[in-house]
Design brief:
The chain is an all-beta fold and 323 residues long. The chain is 1% helix and 38% strand. The protein has one helix and 27 strands. This is Sema domain-containing protein. It comes from Anopheles albimanus.
Length: 323
């Protein structure tokens, strides 16, 4: 069993040894990882939250610091975009930034119905992170407070970055960027002339993230969707091109698909349920199929609720939904 303790910008890893008389925890840490002092363009005036998230891989430990300043010149005017660090078991105990996004804020003049401009200040990259131990499997890190900007309106969309190889000291491939909330007409529901409901606009995708045990899928919590009712997004490789017929399945470059279930179809939830606050998966009650788990801590008038569910075809809506 592994135990992680983050304190004052460092990670201590303690390994629990198994003996005949039970478990014994070593008194001295096997590894201590510290955030390396790097030159950043903005001064780090408060804690970077180094150690907020941790992911063990064969080649090293990945550590999230969602309030870290950036050392990249392209992000010199961005305040606390957050960072992911990679720490080696063998060469040194120092940790270095693992750059999943090297671009600064982007402004797209041409409007095509999608919100493509991005603001990355205080986006909390590394606040959610997951991956299996093998370096050839999915590794994902999210920034739930990433903002999409349109006409000086800020949309709290969130973003996640996925790569398939983490053996090198830095990113050698272009990560897949998961951003399913860009469609402008889906930002709000207009109920009447005086009332609207926020649909994608404050979704906060990436509040939590999980890689399934078979390494083939990601599930991502977005507790802000539809007035904080929340939803759980599925991301996987696209092997069925017929999926493009479903309205809420977004296919990227014919290789990956992102499914965004509409929470209005799930009657057990209401606004401010925060569905997707925590996410996981497993095989339950001798069921060989992987099922999905997500919490809704403010459902049922604040009592909270945890749902075990599957993604199903809802032909009457031309959607993939949750049941």
């Amino acid at each position: 069993m592994d135990r992680f303790i983050g304190s004052l910008g460092r990670i201590v890893i303690l390994f629990c040894a198994h003996f005949a008389d039970g478990n014994q925890l070593f008194r001295e840490p096997n590894y201590i990882f510290r955030k390396t002092a790097v030159n950043s363009f903005q001064q780090q005036n408060r804690s970077s939250y180094f150690g907020y998230t941790v992911n063990l891989r064969v080649s090293g430990v990945f550590i999230g610091a969602p309030r870290a300043q950036s050392q990249l010149e392209s992000q010199r005017n961005i305040h606390e975009p957050g960072a992911v660090y990679k720490c080696s078991y063998t060469s040194t105990s120092d940790c270095w930034p693992f750059h999943l996004d090297k671009e600064g804020n982007t402004h797209v003049e041409k409007y095509d119905g999608y919100i493509r401009s991005e603001r990355k200040d205080y986006r909390m990259l590394g606040a959610a992170m997951d991956g299996l131990t093998a370096d050839g499997n999915f590794f994902v890190a999210c920034a739930p407070k990433a903002i999409g900007e349109l006409n000086e309106q800020y949309h709290l969309h969130g973003v996640c970055y996925v790569i398939g190889d983490t053996r090198t000291t830095n990113v050698t491939e272009s990560p897949h960027k998961i951003k399913p909330f860009m469609l402008n007409r889906m930002q709000v529901y207009k109920i009447s002339d005086r009332k609207i409901r926020y649909f994608y606009m404050l979704g906060e995708m990436g509040f939590n993230v999980h890689v399934t045990d078979d390494g083939k899928e990601l599930i991502i919590g977005a507790p802000g969707v539809l007035d904080w009712t929340g939803t759980v997004i599925r991301y996987r490789q696209n092997n069925d091109h017929d999926r493009m017929a479903w309205k809420n399945v977004h296919v990227v470059a014919d290789s990956h698909e992102t499914t965004v279930p509409n929470p209005t179809r799930l009657r057990t939830l209401s606004e401010f349920s925060y569905f997707g606050y925590a996410v996981n998966s497993g095989r339950f009650l001798m069921n060989r199929k992987i099922l999905y788990v997500a919490s809704a801590p403010r459902a049922k008038t604040g009592l909270g609720q945890v749902l075990i569910f599957d993604y199903i075809e809802q032909s009457s809506y031309s959607e993939i939904g949750i049941r």
